[in-house]
Automatic annotation (TrEMBL):
This protein's UniProt keywords: Membrane, Repeat, Transmembrane, Transmembrane helix
Pfam assignment, any one: Pentapeptide
Transmembrane among keywords: yes
The protein's name in its UniProt record: Pentapeptide repeat-containing protein
Gene3D superfamilies attached to this UniProt entry: E3 ubiquitin-protein ligase SopA (2.160.20.80)
Length: 679
């Protein structure tokens, strides 16, 4: 491809019997200048293409997950976001290649014009003139077509094919494969459109170039056949590969994570796996590249401002307010289907509205995470640490939550139909109006949980399920006459066969009843609004009045801070006293007297909780005593609310500034003493 430095000039042929005419000399100069321009554009295209391909391959999953930036030294160290590079890079490369093809066309026109003039010369004169032409592969290839002489070789044709066809298609395909794991349908479609536009430009160029093979400009049958094989077969294969395989994985695609497949699927022959899905079945497991999902297992996924000691404090020492020192990532409304977070630590991560269907969080630490309105259907959250996580209105249909740690989590309005919560720790969790139809709560711990208006139709509960001091007002255990609606809604999310079988079995065998042994202590019920299923609960274990429930809560020792979180939520919920509550609780006392008595009970409970949770876990106590405070995973917001409600305990004369209005407990949030001034 390099231009030779050993070529004759016009003066070198001065003694020749027949010198080139001025027009001939001008044509030769035009060809040489065009060859130089093609060489420059070709070098620029190769440099950009190789850099773009190398950068796409070298970018790891964590950089894509965080949306990091990288510097381009060729542009003076300018930082470009990864996402922008995957959008702009293919477009810039396409424009550079189109420019190169246009330069090739101009050069081809000049070479054809020169060949027409050379045909009028004698063979010796023509040979001398050809020695003045730049020795460039593209020029030699065209001259070979025109004179049928041994001017070019297969090397020339190969290099032209590489720069005009193979290199651009390979670069754009590599970029698309590297970025498909980001799972942005819009950007993936844009990259596919760029690739198809590139195929069109290549096809048009080669179609035009084939017409230049004969001196007459006519395209022979042989030329048409060669054109079809060269320009049609290979680009068509690339287009089919891109459109079929290099796309964002569907929700019900069960071939994404290779090592999650059955052993029989993993042991299939290489050709069969390649034909089935080359990216997920061959490139990803064999070479660690080409995966269509993010692999973020065993990572520390926190912000750059998080200190290692703060992270260690949350995970080991478990101090109150430790989550406040964590700089959580904010990654809202992303598509992260089938992502692998196994064993990772992503404290306080904000994934609100994300599509996390069939993602894997086995043994992951996501304390304090914001996961409201997320799509987690079929996700694997077994043994996940989700204390104080916000899962409000999350879609967890068919999810695996076995032995998950959900103490103090907010699952209000969450869809848990068909979910496996066997052995899950839901102490102090908020499951208000949650849908648990067909779910498994065997061995689950729901102490102090808020289960008001929850749907327990066909929910599997055994004698080890604990409901101590749970708020179970208006919970619905009555099974529907037809289960088809619930079953279809769960199975429609594309569960694996094992999960489908497990859910169907739970729907078939679940008794949906509470026997005496399951309610080990007291539960708070409204008998007038519950199903007859509660008639099986011993009356001695049923609490019907606010006062008794609050008094019993106050008497409980707070040894587990997440239990205290649940108690605070229960206490705040009961602080609102109005006529409606009085009617529901059937309190047969004067309203003013009720408010006075309830205010005292509420104040005593808040003081009790504040006494055991005040400070950041470093309160001055004897380290040898067994009741040393440990307030792990108690959120800062909850502590602020508790501070605001506990003005009576501090005795600092802040009643006017901090006292919450009865009936409006949430108004007190943030009104208390700053965290730095706590006792």
């Amino acid at each position: 491809m390099a231009m030779t430095n050993e070529k004759l000039t016009l003066s070198d042929t001065a003694n020749a019997s027949e010198q080139p005419s001025k027009y001939m000399s001008a044509l030769i100069s035009s060809v040489n200048d065009g060859a130089k321009a093609v060489q420059s554009s070709n070098f620029a295209l190769c440099s950009v293409g190789l850099y773009l391909a190398a950068a796409s391959i070298s970018i790891n999953d964590e950089d894509i997950f965080r949306g990091s930036s990288f510097q381009i030294s060729q542009l003076g160290g300018v930082s470009i976001p990864i996402i922008a590079s995957f959008i702009l890079g293919p477009i810039v490369f396409l424009l550079l290649h189109i420019q190169l093809l246009l330069r090739y066309r101009i050069l081809a026109e000049s070479v054809c014009a020169l060949s027409t003039e050379l045909h009028t010369l004698q063979k010796d004169a023509r040979t001398r003139c050809l020695r003045l032409v730049a020795s460039v592969d593209f020029v030699r290839m065209i001259l070979r077509w025109k004179f049928k002489e041994d001017i070019s070789s297969s090397y020339d044709r190969t290099t032209v094919f590489l720069t005009t066809t193979l290199l651009p298609l390979a670069v754009l395909l590599v970029v698309q494969i590297s970025f498909v794991r980001y799972q942005n349908i819009g950007i993936t479609y844009l990259q596919t459109a760029v690739l198809l536009f590139e195929l069109g430009a290549i096809g048009i160029f080669h179609y035009w170039l084939e017409g230049k093979k004969d001196a007459s400009g006519a395209r022979t049958r042989e030329g048409k056949l060669r054109h079809g094989l060269l320009v049609g077969a290979f680009p068509a294969a690339v287009a089919i590969f891109s459109l079929i395989y290099v796309q964002v994985p569907a929700v019900d695609d069960g071939r994404i994570r290779f090592y999650d497949l059955p052993k029989s699927e993993q042991e299939r022959s290489w050709p069969r796996r390649f034909f089935d899905q080359p990216l997920d079945m061959v490139l990803c497991p064999e070479f660690g590249w080409g995966c269509r999902h993010l692999r973020l297992n065993n990572r520390k996924l926190v912000g750059t401002q998080t200190r290692d000691d703060a992270l260690w404090k949350v995970l080991t020492e478990s101090r109150a307010g430790a989550l406040a020192a964590i700089d959580g990532l904010s990654l809202r409304e992303r598509t992260l289907r089938y992502a692998n977070f196994n064993g990772s630590r992503a404290l306080k991560v904000d994934l609100v509205g994300d599509d996390l269907r069939h993602a894997s969080f086995w043994n992951a630490a996501f304390q304090g995470a914001s996961l409201s309105f997320t799509k987690l259907q079929g996700a694997d959250l077994e043994r996940a640490q989700l204390q104080e996580a916000d899962l409000t209105s999350a879609l967890l249909t068919g999810a695996n939550l076995r032995d998950a740690q959900l103490q103090g989590a907010d699952l209000e309005l969450a869809d848990l139909r068909g979910a496996d919560l066997t052995g899950a720790q839901l102490v102090g969790a908020n499951l208000n109006k949650a849908q648990l139809q067909g779910a498994s709560l065997e061995r689950a711990n729901l102490r102090y949980a808020n289960l008001q208006q929850a749907e327990f139709n066909h929910t599997a509960i055994n004698v080890e399920t604990r409901f101590d001091f749970a708020d179970m007002r208006n919970v619905n255990f009555h099974p529907k006459e037809a289960d088809a609606e619930t079953t279809d809604a769960v199975l429609a999310v594309g569960l694996s066969n094992d999960m489908k079988d497990a859910f169907t079995e739970r729907m078939r065998t679940a008794k949906s009843v509470i026997v005496d042994e399951t309610v080990e202590q007291k539960v708070y019920l409204t008998l007038t609004k519950t199903d007859s299923i509660f008639s099986k609960v011993n009356n001695g274990k049923v609490i019907e009045e606010n006062e008794k429930y609050l008094e019993l809560l106050e008497g409980q020792p707070v040894t587990d801070p997440v239990v205290a979180s649940g108690l605070v939520r229960r206490a705040i919920a009961f602080s609102s006293i109005n006529d409606k509550n009085n009617v529901e609780m059937k309190v047969e006392v004067d309203k003013q007297r009720c408010e006075t008595k309830m205010e005292k009970i509420f104040r005593d409970l808040i003081c009790h909780l504040h006494e055991q949770l005040k400070g950041d876990g470093s309160n001055k106590r004897d380290a040898n005593k067994s009741d040393v405070n440990k307030s792990d995973y108690v959120s800062v917001e909850l502590m602020r609310q508790l501070d605001a409600l506990s003005w009576q305990c501090r005795g600092e004369g802040q009643k006017e500034a901090c006292e919450p209005a009865i009936g409006q407990p949430t108004a007190a949030v943030g009104a208390g003493v700053p965290l730095s001034q706590r006792n």
